[in-house]
Design brief:
CATH architecture of the largest domain: 3-Layer(aba) Sandwich
Number of domains: 3
Largest sheet: 9 strands, mixed
Bound molecules: adenosine monophosphate
Low-confidence stretches: none
Structural class: alpha/beta
Distance between the termini: 58 Å
Mean pLDDT: 94
Strand order of the largest sheet: 2-1-10-9-11-12-13-14-15
Radius of gyration: 23 Å
Number of helices: 14
CATH topology of the largest domain: Rossmann fold
Shape: globular
Amino acid sequence: MVNVLFDALLGDRRDTAAPFLHLPDGELISYRAFCELVSRYANALVSQGVKPGDRVTAQAEKSPDSLALYFATIAAGAIYSPLNTDYTATELEYFIQDAEPSLVICLPLRERDVSMIARKVGAAVATLGADGSGSLGDAAKGQGSTFVPAPRGEDDLAAILYTSGTTGRSKGAMLSHGNLLSNAATLRKAWAFTEHDVLLHALPIFHAHGLFVANNTVALAGGSMIFHPRFLVDDVIRDLPAATSFMGIPTFYIRLLADARLTRELVADMRLFVSGSAPLLSETHLEFERCTAHRILERYGMTETTMITSNPYNGDRKAGTVGRPLPGISVRVCDAETSKELAPGEIGVLEVAGPNVFKGYWRMPEKTASEFRADGYFVTGDLARIDADGYITLVGRTKDLIISGGYNVYPKEIELLVDELDSGVESAVIGVPHLDFGEAVVAVVVVDSNKITAADSLMPLLKGKIAKFKQPKRYFIEESLPRNSMGKVQKKLLREKYLNCFT
Ligand code: AMP
């Protein structure tokens, strides 16, 4: 009996003393010790009533224990649904009600709020702290260190990751064992990962980038990771000399470049720097090469598909492009309306097909149907152009998405909240260039002038209501919003007007 994803990633390594995690305090966790930890968590999940096919929703700090929880959920045959640690209790309610998990794992400080929400869907609640404390951590400590993985096939679901919806409603992207394993195998080969690799892991593990691209690829190769709880420039600079590879969002590279300690000597033993999740400016790419003699390898993907394209490991890494389709994955650039394939060089919407493409949106068959073409291609919503060498450049998005610090923010969700404010009349939320975050969230608002005169006084009003990365970094008051003849707000004009508000 097989468990497709678990067997491939960890199954063969249960008895190896090779290192898997290097922790900042110097502790080293071998594959054997990590697999024992995973087994303890898997036994704890089963003892809490988790069965194959159940959802396990987790909002947990990044730690060896929360990483073990991910693998344990897969081993138990359940479906892992991680949530951004920044989400407020109000935001959690939607995800829990939508996923209907049998178990919710939350930060100890959220236990009361989450219990009230979980009760409505009949889910059990357990807590997990960063240091492995909490009721789930305690339960795991008392469990046996072996576990027989539940049988799971290629098409069985391994994870549901939520992506923000254009209407403000998040959609759960269903990823199967086959989806995740195929992408890990493709990336291991494309980026030449081996058991000698040491990946400096500073990404969050509630997002596909840190959770799948980093962890799955390294585990499949039998390599190890220097596992940082979060990205901090000092810690990354300290540990880069011990690493062979690094994965980051553009913000990480911009922050590293701002530090004089980033030199050629510091990264002389590195073999690979990967960037993705948001556009890497050509200037950043060139500046990084000038400073370190390394050319960042930029790749492109999304939650629904994991990785789609990559610049080559061997070969020309073209700044400003996201490279070519990965092996086994087909892409085409089509007219957004007619779906007619366009000629090379023309701009259209990027469509993708391959073993990496997800199984659809959780409990949203109509939404799923509307985002797939009849021949099975998934419509990414990204606007792209393919050059004569097959390299893809992303030029924009058909959807109104903002990517701030690597996280997606859908304006509609923020606009609804701003409009509800006592002083608010209407608003348009836009993304504008920001040196550190790539794009920053800005709200242009029309307000009741009897109640509010200064834009700054709006700043605190969304605090605590939505995750920090979604909160507008600036507000601007306008008498009215620019609209076209169809009444649609012309965000393009607002983006032009506030283009330089952070520079
Ligand atoms: P997510 O689902 O959070 O991974 O976000 C996916 C979106 O991030 C894609 O649809 C793209 O718009 C964007 N994205 C990912 N990688 C890149 C990249 N290398 N350059 C530009 N945009 C990217």
